[in-house]
Specification:
heterodimer; A: 282 residues; alpha/beta; 2-enoyl-CoA Hydratase, Chain A, domain 1; two-stranded antiparallel ribbon; B: alpha/beta; 2 domains; 9 strands; 48% helix; binds zinc ion
Chain lengths: 282, 324
């Protein structure tokens, strides 16, 4: 269910992690670009429109009206219920992730406004353990769906995850059922759910809430799929075609509604919300 | 069926073969042979007990994948009557690793859904090693919707290494197919009993695993990723699968403790593969015991109960110190 988070070692540096200096090299077009310009451009390469991975906080800043975001569930923390150790202890991995991100888990949840319309929002954070879904991520997603249900709000989830968190074993698998069940209730109440897929959205996150949007939007170039490319290559013993499991591939195969560039995302979300909202009251 | 043995079954099997030989020699005249048979039987009992009361999680994984283990279609013959298979997702094709149909369980009409592995090479290929494609999950959903429409309870049997990781599977939306089943099963208006009969491999297992009562055979496993897959990602070494199985705690008693499953179905001594009929009888009794109370439950209550069951799964610390 979980997949290898990084296909190549160097891919872990894809997210914007810039050494000293004001100039960085784009991972995609390899052009040298001016860092403040990239940041002003929502971390999209001004030369080739490559979308850098961004932390959850920045994501919220980019789509939610300033000063309207109210977080909930930030106190929830993972428990090492299996006493899990691989090459490192799970508790140590958690500690490191907390230190790195300043947050307790791999998702930020809350309420906020998009061009004046209130929404319930969950944003996965790839920087925290590869955005993997354990009990806390599952719980917070479910709570966000339930908040949307109680407050009759649309739900928006931004995914960025390698899948279920292996260190929490079968309980992490069950979060797929938990989150999907919560979305089922939202759907029964005719409240809209917009799923936004960002790079990467794979494994147990793709195979649960991320692919259940009434409308599914992907960022350009995002890797989206169930099985990891390496697992597929090993299974079928052949090389995968160029662009396989990228957002454009999903669009072509009918798995997402649209690909939207980061700069147009907020406006697009707002427009879609206006088409879908109101039905829940009738 | 060619009988095959796991390494840790070997000492028992060797003694059993000797016992067979002795029994053939025994014509009732030689007191020595009789004594020897008695001793050997005792010894076998003792060793079997020793081996089976100290199984590691990796050994249980091997039992769950045992080549002689009863599969879905074996249990169809052992526990059900009047099985009628239903084919196809009405959109792309029929997917043989996922079997659906009508069946009768002690006079109770049900819809039966489950993964089917193959016994020999040809069957294995035809059944894709029990790994379903999106159209398999979509067939299952189509049949579950029919069960809802005609008020038939659903029984699912889980036995898969996982959903198939292939190019076509991705093109046709493996993740969407699994996700859709999770959502739809969570509010399907008819009772659902789930039984893990062998391997419960990640999302491909859970895609038919959301229900009101979750049963697990004693020597089955249910995990977020295969021990080999986990070992390859976290240790970068598939040889660490044994450790990964231990770490992930994927056996029936583990999962009962974590509240993932409701009951454990005991298997015959030495495992279900040693006695298909006995395994079938116990499974059938457990299915009936799980299903009957659900049949009289009002649907809203049933759905609330099902929602709560999955809603409460997880281990979370909400404040410093306390865990819930
Ligand atoms: Zn570029």
């Amino acid at each position: 269910m979980a997949i290898r988070l990084f296909r190549k070692k160097d891919e872990s540096d894809r997210k914007i992690k810039i050494p000293e200096g004001m100039w960085i090299k784009c991972d995609a077009c390899l052009e040298i670009i001016y860092k403040p310009e990239v940041e002003r451009n929502l971390n999209v390469c001004p030369k080739c429109v490559y979308h850098f991975r961004i932390p959850a906080r920045e994501r919220i800043r980019a789509v939610i009206d300033e000063g309207t975001f109210v977080e909930f569930g930030e106190e929830m923390e993972s428990v090492d219920v299996l006493n899990f150790t691989d090459t490192k202890k799970y508790v140590d991995r958690l500690k490191e992730a907390k230190k790195k991100t300043g947050r307790k888990e791999a998702v930020i949840t809350g309420k906020g406004k998009i061009q004046g319309d209130e929404v319930a929002l969950a944003v996965l954070d790839f920087e925290f353990q590869g955005g993997s879904m354990g009990s806390v991520v599952g719980e917070k997603i479910a709570i966000t769906a339930e908040v949307a249900l109680e407050s009759r709000l649309p739900l928006i989830i931004f995914s960025a995850s390698g899948g279920a968190r292996m260190q929490e074993g079968t309980l992490s698998l069950m979060q797929m059922a938990k989150t999907s069940a919560a979305l089922g209730r939202l759907s029964d109440a005719r409240l809209p759910f917009i799923s936004v897929l960002t790079d990467p959205t794979t494994g147990g996150v793709a195979a649960s809430f991320a692919m259940l949007g009434d409308v599914i939007i992907s960022e350009p170039g995002a890797l989206v799929g169930f099985a990891g490319p390496r697992v597929i290559e090993q299974t079928i013993q052949q090389k995968l075609p160029e662009g396989f499991q990228r957002a454009e591939f999903l669009l072509e195969h009918g798995m997402v509604d649209m690909i939207v560039e980061r700069s147009r995302l907020k406006a697009t979300l707002s427009t879609i919300l206006r088409y879908l909202s109101g039905s829940g009251d009738r | 069926m060619i009988l095959q043995y796991l390494d840790f079954e070997r000492p028992i099997v060797d003694l059993e073969n000797r016992l067979e030989q002795l029994k053939r020699l025994d014509d009732g005249t030689d007191k020595g042979v009789k004594e020897e048979i008695g001793k050997l039987e005792k010894k076998i009992g003792k060793i079997r007990k020793e081996v089976f009361s100290n199984l590691t999680r990796w050994q249980i994984t091997q039992l769950a994948r045992h080549p002689n283990r009863p599969y879905l279609l074996d249990y169809v013959n052992l526990c059900f009557r009047n099985f009628i298979e239903l084919h196809g997702d009405r959109a792309f094709r029929d997917d043989p690793p996922l079997v659906c149909g009508f069946a009768e369980l002690e006079g109770q009409r049900v819809v039966l859904i489950g993964q089917q592995k193959g016994r020999n090479t040809n069957e294995k290929i035809q059944r894709n090693f029990g790994m379903a494609n999106p159209e398999g999950y979509r067939k299952a959903l189509r049949v579950m919707k029919m069960a809802e429409k005609f008020r038939l309870p659903v029984i699912t049997f889980i036995d898969t290494p996982g959903a198939f990781p292939g190019i076509g599977a991705e093109e046709r939306g493996q993740s969407e197919a699994i996700a859709r089943n999770l959502l739809e099963m969570s509010h399907l208006k008819t009772p659902i009993v789930v039984a893990v009969i062998g391997e419960g491999g990640s999302g491909g297992a859970l895609a038919i695993g959301v229900g009101d009562e979750i049963l697990m055979m004693e020597y089955s496993v249910y995990s977020v990723i295969s021990p080999e897959g986990c070992a390859s990602i976290l240790w970068r070494d598939t040889a660490k699968a044994e450790v990964a199985a231990e770490m992930m705690k994927i056996t029936a008693p583990d999962l009962k403790k974590f509240g993932v499953i409701d009951r454990i179905i005991p298997e015959p001594l030495g495992g279900a593969h040693r006695d298909h009929k006995a395994a079938g009888d116990t499974l059938k009794a457990a299915l009936l015991e799980a299903l009957l109370p659900l049949l009289s439950m009002p649907i809203p209550q049933l759905l609330e109960r099902r929602y709560r069951k999955f809603r409460e799964m997880g281990a979370i610390r909400r404040k410093a110190g306390g865990a819930a």
